[in-house]
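mind reviewing these tokens:
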Amino acid sequence: MLRAAVRRDLRIASNPQPQNGFTITELLIVLTLIGILSVVSMPTLKGFAATRRLKASAYSLRSLLTFARDMAITNRTVHLVVFDFDNGRYWLASSETFNPASPLTSLLTAQNSTVVAASQNGANGNPLTTGTSAQQAPLVRTSGILGVPYPMEPNVTLAAMVTNHNGRTVSVDSGVEYVYFSPTSTSEEAAVYLRNSRNQIMSVNVEAASGRVRVRQLTPAEIEMLGFEADN
């Protein structure tokens, strides 16, 4: 019995089991495949990021437009969203702060920043009572964001806007334009177009009768029909 056990151990020792592991050649092949897949997938990942930023800008704009509509109804005061195409930004304004002849004056500056401070202190139960601007500032829910600019996401631009003022169609791609909401929730038909670096376009549309806001990504055929060209 002892001799049989010794012979069995000798056979096992002379025929060791193969060791699990990778050779240098196998590791190099795996690393090469990973590199190829990274190169192939990089454009897709960049495209996904560009689309995500475009959609984020469109839905942020929709949120502010919807907020302007709600505040117009709640406060019984016309509210607007003003667009600065040259600098790629937009902001909330009210009929009390907006001058159509000089729309940029509704943008928050160092001179009227005390309005925001007053509204914030008022919301905390400590109204600011010093300063002429603070005394005149209405402490309402919109005061904290009136005139505060919202920039576009990286590589996203305000491409164009088509609206209707007093029955006249207006199309702009530069300068300053606006969309207003009345206390009855009505507006003027408007479409704001946002574009990213891949010439993808999303439209943010405002319905005149209800003031409701919709977001939609345009198809390549619609982009071509509207005449949008890729940026160089």
